[in-house]
Amino acid sequence: MAIKIRVAAVLVESDAVLLAMHRRRGETTWALPGGGLEEGEALEECLVREMREETGIPIRVGRLMLVADVVPPAGSLREQTLNLVFHVTRDGQAHTEARSVRLDEAHDAVRFVPLDDLEQVGLRPPIGEALRAAIAEGPNGPARYLGNVWAEPARRATE
User: Fold this and answer.
1) Which pLDDT belongs to residue 154?
2) What is the 3-state secondary structure (H, E, C) of the chain?
3) CA angle 99-46-90, nearest 5°?
4) What is the residue-averaged pLDDT of the chain?
5) Beta bridge partners of 23
6) What is the pTM of this model?
7) What is the pLDDT of residue 105?
């Protein structure tokens, strides 16, 4: 069994964090921008590439904030994923807005979502509370291991 390694970016501006919206099989979920590590690719390279592809925003990668396993139950069709969540900042062009358009077949939009709304938007994996705490700790806070955060996706028909 292969385990997917996914890197994700935490870009915070004006008390809001950048999220990417996904619509699949009648469900709408939000995730931190990022994606799977390709063979021969370093974590930082992967995160810079994924942010460029998903948002068009050039970034600098900062500290590792959170590590979370997503281990689906036996027999599930979903894959096991190791999520590595990094703090990022914009690299130049500090006032460029994130695009809110469909960028590829997997992402419908990217948008800054208020930190107070993280637990209500259908964040996947469901790490909203831990993410808010890590953001509050600032740039020098410790990395936190959250363990297995698997949860059945909630069905959401609308944004």
Assistant:
1) 53
2) CCCEEEEEEECEECCEEEEEEEEECCEEEEECCEEECCCCCCHHHHHHHHHHHHHCCCEEEEEEEEEEEECCCCCCCCCCEEEEEEEEEECCCCCCCCCCCCCECCECEEEEEEHHHCCCCCECCCCHHHHHHHHHCCCCCCCEEEEECCCCCCCCCCC
3) 45
4) 85
5) 28
6) 0.85
7) 52
Class in CATH terms, 4-95+102-148 = alpha beta
**How many Å apart are CA 27 and CA 22, to the nearest integer?**
8
Structure tokens at 123: 């964040």
CA of residue 119 relative to chain centroid, distance:
14
C-alpha span between 13 and 1 (Å, rounded): 38
Supply 2's token pair.
């292969």
Q: Read off the tokens for 28.
A: 């709408």
Q: How many CA atoms lie within 13 A of 5 on its CB side?
A: 11
**How many C-alpha atoms does 17 have within 13 Å on its Cβ side?**
29
Query: What are the tens digits of pLDDT across the range 95-145?
Result: 445 544 334 455 578 999 999 998 888 899 999 999 999 999 988 899 999
C-alpha radius of gyration, the chain, whole number: 15
